[in-house]
Structures are given as C-alpha cells and as structure tokens.
Amino acid sequence: MSMLLSRYAEALFWFARYIERSASLARILNVQASFWQDHSNQENWASILSLYADTDRFNEAHGTITAQKVAKFYITDRENPGSILSCLWAARENARLLRPLISVSMWSYINVSYNEMKRLSERDLDAARLSRTCESIARTCDAIMGVTEGTYYRDAGWRFYQLGLWIERADQTSRLLDVKVAQVASHNGLDQSDTIADAEFWKLLLHSFEAYHAFQRSKSGRMDPRKVANFLMFNQSFPRSLTHCIGEIQDMLNDLYMGFQLRHVASCYEQVEMLLYELEAASNDPHLHLRFHGFNDKVQNRLFAITNSLGKSFFGHETLSQDTEQTQTQSQSATE
Amino acid sequence: MSNYDPCAFFCEMSSNMSARSSQLEDIWERFDQADFDTLKMRSKEADLELFNLGVTFTVYSDKNVIDRVLPFDIIPRVITATEWETLDRGVVQRVAAINAFLHDIYNQRHILNDGIIPPELVLENSNYRETMIGFEPAGKTYTHISGTDIIRDDDGKFMVLEDNVRSPSGVSYVVENRHLMERSFPDLLANLKLRKVSDYGTNLFIKLCESAPNGCADKDNPQVVVMSPGMFNSAYFEHIFLAREMGVPVVEGQDLFCDDDKVFMKTIGGPRRVDVIYRRIDDDFLDPDVFRPDSTLGVKGLVNAMLKGNVTIANALGTGVADDKAVYAYMPRIIKYYLDEEPILDNVKTYICREKDALLYTLAHMDELVVKPVGESGGYGITIGPKATKEELDEARAALLANPSNFIAQPMISLSVCPTLGETGLVPRHVDLRPFAITGRGTWVLPGGLTRVALKEGSLIVNSSQGGGTKDTWVLAEEMSLKNEGADA
User: Fold this and answer.
1) Looking at residue B438, what is its pLDDT?
2) Do A7 and B255 touch (CB under 8 A)?
3) How would DSSP label each residue in A47-87?
4) How many Å apart are CA B266 and CA A170, to the nearest integer?
5) Please, are residues B442 and B178 in contact by the beta-carbon 8 Å criterion?
C-alpha cells in the first residue's frame, strides 16, 4: 500500500472535526431546547453565542436574540459557517474528496444524512420539535462515526481521523466549561443564595456532555460544582474529559511514530506532553476556579498549536491554512 | 409480444431474436411479462439508490453542490456472444492501428510520406504535439484507454461512429449499472450467463503496470496514480471509481512535484516516486512549463520527466490527432496500411471531399447527405441535407466548392433501438455503444461497454447533456463455454 497523501490525511482530520463539532453543537442545543420555556431563557441562548464567539456576528445579521433565531443560526443557516448544516456540508465535501479511501457505506450514509439535514424546515426548529430535532442530529453524527469506526481501514489515515476527533472534542469541552463557569460566576455575584438553581445548572451542564449518568456513577452524592468541573476536565475514563481526549491524542501520535515510522511527529508530541503536564498540574490546583478562564485559554491555545504542528509536519503547510471558523475543504478551487 | 413496436429500426432485443440467441427470448420475456407498475416503481428505487451511493456527476454553482444521477434505464441492452466476438476483434484491431499510426506520425511518418494521408491533416492538427516527436513511449502504447463509439444500422450492421483515444469517460457507469441491476433486479438476472464487468479495475491496473517507464525503479511494483482535475470536475466520481478499483491514490496537480526529472507525490511520510499517471486532464493543462502557463491543475516539469523515461503518462500526449474527424475518414485505410487487414468494423460511409470522386458524389447528393467541416468548430457548419432548405443547400454547396478539403460528407445515420421503460409501457429508444479497450502488452476489451440511450422519443442524441441516459449492457456468455466460465454471472 502506498503512503497516504498529505491531502487525504488533512481531509480525514477535518472530516472528523466537523462531524464531532456538529454532534457537540446538537447536544448543547438539545439541552437548551429542553428548557426553552425557562425564564432565564434568553440569557442561556445568549451564552451559546458567546460559547462560539458569535455574539457580534449574530447581532449584526439577526438583531435581538430569540430562541428560534439562535436555533436557526446554529442548525440550518448556511450563511453561518459554524452551523450544523455548514459543518455537515464541509464534512461531506471532505468525505467526497476521501471517497477513494472510505467505504461505500460510509460515503452513502454521510450523503443521505446531509440530504436529510438539508430538508429541515422552520417547523422542525419550533419549541415543540427542537429537542427532538437536535437529538436526531446528534444520533446521525454518532452513526456517521459508527460507520466510520466499523468500516474504515486502520491505516495511518485512521490516526489522523482520530486526531481530528479528539482535538475537536477537547476543544468543545474546554469552551463549554469556560463559558458555563463564567456564567455561574456572574450569577453568583448577583445572588449568592441561588443554590437550587445552581444544582439545576450543573445538572444541565452534565447533560450537555451526556455525562450525567457517568458522573453519578463515579461521584455519587451532591451536585458540587467543583466536582462536576473536575469530572469533565480530568476524569480519566469519561470520553469527553480533557484528560481522556489528550491521552487519546498521545496514543495516536505514538501509533504514527511506532507503527508507521513517521519520525516527524516530534514537535507535535512535545506540545501534547506539555498539555498533559499542565492538566496534571491543574487537577491538583485547589484554586483552579480562580484562574479558570486563563487555564482554558491555555488549553485552547495548545490545541491550536497541536493542529498547527500537524499541518506543518504532515499536511505540507508552512502555517495553518484553515482557520477553525472557516468551512474547510481542500480543492484546487478557491470557490466556496 | 405486448405492444412494443420498434418500427423500421433494428431492435437490440427483438430483431431476429431466435436467430441471434436462444437466450434473447428468455430475457425479453422476463421484462415484457413483468408487471409494468412494479418495474416502474423498482426503477425509481434504483434511481434513489444511485443518488444515495453518490454514483453521480456533480454540478457546482456559487453556493450549491448539485449531484445529478445520470438517468438509468433498467431494460438492458443485450449483445449476443457472436456479436461480441466481432465487436471485440474489431475494437482490438482499431486500437492496434491507432497506436501504430500515432507512433508513425511522431517518428518516421511513413504514412504521410507514402501519401496515404495528406500531411497537413496530421502535422497542422491542433492536437499534434511536437514535444512527442522522436519520443518512444513504453511498449509503443499511446492510447492505453480507448472508447470506440459504435452504432448499428437498420440491418443490424455495427459501424464505428467515432474514436475516443484521449480521455474517454463512462466506464464507471458500466460497472455501477451492473451492480445496480444485480442489487435491484436479482430475480430478472437469475440463471443468466453474462460476461462479467467487475474486473475492469484489475485489468486496467495490470495494463498500466505493463506500461511502466524504463526509468521505473521497481518494475514489478510501479506506483500508479489517477490524476484528476479535482472534485469540482463533473467526472470526479469516475476518477474515484477508477482509483478505488485499482487500489491506487487519486492525485491532483497540487499533490505532485518534479525533481531531477522524476515525479513525486507529497505524502505524510515525505515525497514518494510516481511511475505511471493515468491522467484525466487534457494535454493543455498537464504541465504549465510546456502548455498553458496559467494551468493550476498540472505539474511543472511533468513532460520533461516523461521525455526522460521516468514516468508514463496515460494516455500519452498528442493522441487527439487520431480521434479527429478528418483523420476518422481515413481510418479504414490506416488499418489496412499498418495491419494489412480489412477493417472488421466499418466506418460510417464517409466521403472525403478533398478527393475528386467523393466531391462529385457529395455535390450530386447534397440533399441526402450530412456535410461536416473537419475543422475544430465541432457542430458548427454542419448541413443536414434532408432537413436543409434550398437556400441552405446552395450555401453549403458554395462553401464546399470554395474549400473542399475542409469537408467530409456522410449519409444520414440511423441508430438501432432498444426497449426502454416509457410512461405507460415499453417503448423503442435509440442507443449507441461505447466499448472500452485497455492496452499495455496487448489489448483487453471490457465485455459490453457503455450503452447510451436517447430517452426522448425519436431523438438520436444520446449525450447526457441532452436528455440521454444509460443502460446496463449484457454480453451473453457463449453457450459452449458456459462451463469454463462458471464464475461469470
């Protein structure tokens, strides 16, 4: 078998990121949708905009924040490159490029899924249906990953797919925690006694990660904010925690180095080791909540640096050409 | 036999049925006696499946990617074992002559010096590539992949309408159509002995490996790639298909570079040598150093690497001379000249107006003939005698007399028909056939080929851009050899 083309490695990497991003977005919106009627509604929808640093862009295009408008912005709006439909479109275009490598069933499933997504209408996003719609999107993304897992040949390309998946997942976890913790901090500043709302809030957060049951199993008892945050960041066994994701990234780089004799993983590997070290230190820091935002900034910068060095070492870039906010497919044409 | 009536045309299914093959009747009954509404419904399901599988050609507009399915008609076009034997030999012969012709015109030019073909037709042809002069491609093969467009007249005689020896497309549909039929209509295919089409990729890979250049480091194991203009090309699906069937990468120009007159691809493990490039890019775009300097699809230095014998480009550059309309007219003479054989497959009768007798005949029969200019402006300037007004005929006559060398004339062609799923029943629709031949050491022809069908009533235009579709092409295995070919189904 011939050595994997750089362009394919990169397409696999981004394919995974776009699917994972869509799944994560669908889960977050789903949790939000379940509490559509809540009085703190608007603020929560606003927090989703800040999660993806979209507040200004949204205000410019759509003005006041309503549930319906935000849901549309993040699900079906093709003008928003960060919407689920845009992400799935980008994933599909990467998959199209990857068709020589992927199974027919994988391509076919992605193709069918995207075409179904395209048929979503305003009706599917109203208060009564939004949650179900998000649920079904998340399941669709899970199924795409399932078909991939079940059919993709375990070549070096598989490792790049996995790298994309774990980097995106770590990034989503870090962002969501960052925004949510900031939200709580501002809340508690206003009303220190609102502990019930607090417990509800943390429960919700766990649901956004589909982590509620896993958390209960590992830490039975009171919904302690610090426990929740620690679980989502540092639990070794929870598949969305930072520690777990970064561990997987390290494993993949090891595979590329040992199994595929790709010696130039070194610079990337260094970044990962540093990040693991920083996570370890943070997990032992009793005052982490005081520097939470700074810590998450650092995590996100590290993830960016890891992506960057993959670009240099394997994808043939001088610098990272794909801004994560841009829809990304490789082609000779700059259109779209 | 229901209400199906092929009129005066030769029908690929129902004409001389019992004389052609005992299996034909059986096949016809399967479709003729199936419940029409059920066939119609299953046909719709098959279309949806093609779409979902992405067996599509792609149209890009500013913001949208539109995948279109080439319309597929479920009634197969059947070729008997005897008919195929002739077609197969005829195509092999034609390809052999074309390769010999190309080698000659880029080397000794015997055929020009012997006055068989006017030199200016070849040397001034826009597809003649001077860079190929004196170059010896591996195995003297120029056209590794050829598609020969064949039609059948009212008497059922096969004739070649056109050669495609640059970058013929459509083979992916041949294989996918069969897969689709096998999945969608297993009952209608049950117990039939058909020649298989699924090994096209394997054979293509073998032939391309046989064509590895002298400078190939490991001749037993050459690195073959398919070179595509990219996923924005409407035939991208076919490029993927070919690569997947061969188990080789699809590369774009941006994946390749040349160093020290060798070609490399950029991989995660660094540069890797490339030995054989099956390119689906026109000559003009291959190498900005030699051809269009604005090409972003090509690779700088590629032509030089080829000339140094370090890479095989398939098909070779400059093959376009051989499938030119003007040269087509000479093909029967080309076959005779190089192979000393009579053509197994005739051309459509063609009058070369630069020759006196042909000119006189054409002038006397303007109202019966189709007069075509041989220049580049495909389609432009064609006069269809039977449909032209007196003024148009006079104009054409004047143009012809002013420059006879610029014209050929052919009788109105007639295409055979094949039963096709209509709105309320089976209807006759015109078809052609494009068998695919691949050449390395020797030539192999994929049994059958692409059957294109004009879905509009009365239309002779089978092109997909103008309402054409495709059919599965069934070549019946010889009854005698059924036992030997037990795996063929």
Assistant:
1) 98
2) yes
3) HHHHHTT-HHHHHHHH-S--HHHHHHHHHT-TTSTTSHHHH
4) 29
5) no
Structure tokens at A81: 């490159």
Instruction: Among B240, B248, B267, select the one facing A99 at the smallest CB separation.
Output: B240
- What is the predicted ipTM? 0.84
Tell me whether residues B255 and A331 touch, CB distance under 8 A: no
List all residues 6 or more positions away from A188 whose beta carbon is below 8 Å from its beta carbon. A194, A198
Number of A:B CB contacts under 8 A?
87
Q: What local confidence, expressed as pLDDT, does residue A38 receive?
A: 57
Q: How far is it, in rounded angstroms, from Cα B96 to Cα B90? A: 10
CB B460 within 8 A of CB B415: yes
Whose tokens are 């092409």? That residue is B473
DSSP state of B3: S
Each residue's pLDDT tens digit, B430-454: 999 999 999 999 999 999 999 999 9
**Those residues with Cβ within 8 angstroms of residue B151's Cβ, 6 or more apart along the chain or in another chain:** B158, B159, B161, B348, B413, B415, B416, B432, B433
- B28 closest CA partner among B8, B38, B14: B14
**Rounded distance, CA B460 to CA B412, Å?**
11
Spatial CB neighbours of B345, under 8 Å, sequence gap ≥ 6? B86, B87, B90, B91, B93, B94, B148, B150, B158, B159, B160
Tokens of B65: 């990617």
User: Are residues B240 and A4, on separate chains, in Cβ contact within 8 Å?
Assistant: no
In chain A, where the domains are located: 6-331
Q: Is A300 on the interface with B (CB under 8 A)?
A: no
Closest chain B residue to the Cα of A110, Cα to Cα: B52
Q: What is the pLDDT of residue A48?
A: 86
Tokens of B345: 């497959």
Q: What angle do CA A63, A65, A70 make, to 5 degrees?
A: 105
Paired strand residues for B66: B59
Q: Is A112 touching B (CB cutoff 8 A)? A: yes
The two tokens of residue A321 are 């050409």
pTM value surpassing 0.80: yes
Q: How many Å apart are CA A56 and CA B237, to the nearest integer?
A: 40
CA-wise closest residue to B150 among B77, B205, B242: B77
The tokens describing A193, both together, are 């006694």
pLDDT in tens, A241-250: 999 999 999 9
